[in-house]
Write a structure and sequence with these properties.
Helix content: 40-55%
Bound molecules: flavin-adenine dinucleotide
Radius of gyration: 18 Å
Strand order of the largest sheet: 1-2-3-4-5-6-7-8
Shape: globular
Distance between the termini: 18 Å
CATH topology: TIM Barrel
Number of helices: 11
């Protein structure tokens, strides 16, 4: 995290843009239980769009639907989502994060509704879920912006591949679909969101073998992870995007990051005892 405040993220985004990296902001938070909280999150994002414009940044937004009130009802959530999409304007995609598997149907339903009305909305799909191949197949003809990730939640084996190796292979298969001639014809914006260097290489090689231009898809990573690779991709002519998370509600997000990489636990502990 660059810091807890929007202004911290804006300062980091300015620095990253200078280095040729584009940014996406997300305010940490999920599973809002009060309508007023969901409305406050929407207001925050509207204000963030004002600041992004004032500073002339190319930053886009990524939102979690449970932070916009999905648990309180799809209708409430959609009202907030729509305000953000409209304010973002047609040139700036509002990405919808994908949360735990029980939210996938509702998330895709609201995404499809928004996409039918506005061009500037994108969605995240998770390679660890068995269903994602079908979801991707049905979304490609809509020419949507699609971000492919491995998936960050603890899921049961009847929904998600339990073995990392299978998740990685599925990621690559899905990435190939995302970069397929059919997807390109449909106008899909393909976001390959991983820090996995082996997968990044495979995607680069596959794209080159298909004679895809480097500007025809993009890589996305989290702020502070694989920084050298983020810069290397930008230097090599790829679109390299960095997702910056900020805000005070960092605990669940942070725990997912720790669970992904146990080495991080040691890193945190070392810092606790040496600072
Ligand atoms: C832009 C973006 C948006 C995302 N949006 C979503 C979403 O909406 N829904 C969702 O479920 N998940 C989302 N994720 C998280 C994603 O699902 C994975 O959990 C996360 O990216 C780790 O998987 P990986 O592909 O990097 O591969 P891994 O195999 O987990 O990691 C590959 C290598 O990257 C490095 N690395 C990975 N994670 C860390 C870390 N936390 N700290 C330090 N090094 C690390 C390590 O060197 C590791 O060996 C998003 C990720 C990105 C980059």
């Amino acid at each position: 995290m660059p810091g807890e405040e929007l202004e911290d993220a804006l300062a980091a985004a300015r620095e990253l843009e200078r280095k040729g990296l584009r940014t996406i902001f997300t305010k940490l938070g999920e599973n809002i239980t009060e309508e007023s909280e969901a409305a406050a999150v929407a207001e925050h994002y509207l204000g963030a769009l004002d600041r992004i414009r004032e500073l002339g940044l190319m930053t886009e937004l990524s939102v979690k639907l449970t932070q916009l009130g999905l648990d309180l009802g799809g209708g409430i959530c959609y009202v907030h989502l729509e305000r953000i999409i409209v304010k973002a304007g047609t040139e700036s995609v509002v990405w919808i994060d994908m949360e735990a598997s029980e939210y996938v149907d509702r998330t895709l339903e609201l995404f499809r509704r928004a996409k039918a009305a506005y061009p500037n909305v994108g969605v995240c799909l998770q390679a660890y879920l068995y269903r994602t191949a079908d979801d991707l197949g049905s979304l490609i003809p809509t020419g949507s912006a699609i971000r492919l990730v491995k998936g960050a939640y603890r899921e049961p084996p009847d929904r998600a591949f339990p073995r990392k190796k299978d998740v990685d292979e599925n990621f690559f298969d899905l990435a190939k679909k995302l970069l397929s001639p059919e997807a390109r014809r449909a106008g899909v914006r393909a976001g390959i969101a991983t820090h996995d260097l082996a997968l990044i290489r495979r995607v680069e090689q596959y794209a080159a073998s298909q004679r895809l231009g480097k500007e025809e898809f993009e890589f996305q990573m989290l702020y502070g992870i694989q920084r050298a690779e983020q810069l290397r991709l930008a230097r090599d002519g790829y679109q390299s995007h960095v997702l910056l998370a900020y805000g005070s509600y960092w605990f669940p997000w942070y725990m997912r990051r720790l669970a992904e990489r146990p080495a991080n636990v040691m890193f945190v502990l070392r810092n606790l005892f040496t600072s």
